[in-house]
Amino acid sequence: MNRYEIPLSTVWTRILPFVFLPVYGSGYIAGGLGLHTMRPFAMTFWRFALAGIVVLVIVLVRRARWPRGWRQWWPILVVGLLIQVVQFGGNYTAMGLGMPAGLTSLIAGSSSLMIAIGAVPILHERLTGWRLAGVIIGFVGVAVALADHLGIPSGPVGVFAAFSAALGYAGGSLLQRRRLRDVDSWVSVGIQFLVAAPITFVLAQFTGGVGIPLTAESLAPLAWLVLANSVLGMWLLGQMLRHHPAATLSAWSNLIPPFTVVLAVPFLGQPLSLTLVVGVVVTLAGTALVVLPAPRRRSRDAAPPAHGSREELVAASAASRPEA
């Protein structure tokens, strides 16, 4: 090899984050476009059903090992309910009620703050002063971003749906970290999709059914959510976990809310507001304090956390989260 040539693997490692962010973070934009012609639970059902079939085929081709025994099956089912049904159902309901995609993405991102709090009793982690400050700053930023939205008639209901989605993701992530560390991620997500599909089918019956218009305005966003955001996004996430440290994944994942805010202007016609921009900046600052490694002193007596570092938790839990 010429000494001036850069190995292909090195090139891929360098450009990978720039591919990961638009694909993995595009779900709010595609979801917002789909909601112009589809009801929230109808779109959610078709996303889960179709993505579940695709992922199941991938699992069969890879000959991945399936869960063994009820001890591995029940956490997958509960995680599927929390991360897939509650998270995506809540996000799409909030957006369907008029919540801007950027604000929905910001509230979803606050799940990192919820995970930091929940990790104390569940994973026996210590919430340091550094991270506690980050949690407080992060929620202040969310409150600032919400200032304008609460004034519209459907605002409180949309806010409740969005925060329920964030709580669902946080709870599912903590359970996944505690119980599913040895389960193949493709198998886990495929089962979650196929479990979530019939549940959202039932929920859709109360909001008009699962029928969708067979038009480009409906099928194009749905195809993107299934193939790009869910399947390709999950593969790119695995590549990020393989080629980059967890802190790098955390940092790039935190760029999803501002990425969504900017793209929502041309694609969804949602204007920027000062409160949203300020809220995003403040929340990002707080979240960075929570998910990025804090300055620490060396100690020979320091014991490792019982369930791995918070950076590992962010990386592991992200494996089940194709963005909105």
UniProtKB/TrEMBL annotation:
Transmembrane regions listed in the UniProt entry: 12-35, 41-61, 73-90, 102-123, 130-151, 157-175, 187-206, 218-237, 249-268, 274-292
EamA domain boundaries: 23-145, 158-291
Subcellular location: Membrane
Record carries keyword Amino-acid biosynthesis: no
Domain of life: Bacteria
Membrane topology qualifier: Multi-pass membrane protein
UniProt keywords, alphabetically: Membrane, Transmembrane, Transmembrane helix
GO cellular component: membrane
UniProt-annotated stretches for the region Disordered: 298-324
Family the entry assigns: Belongs to the EamA transporter family.
Protein name, entry field: DMT family transporter
Organism: Leifsonia sp. NPDC080035
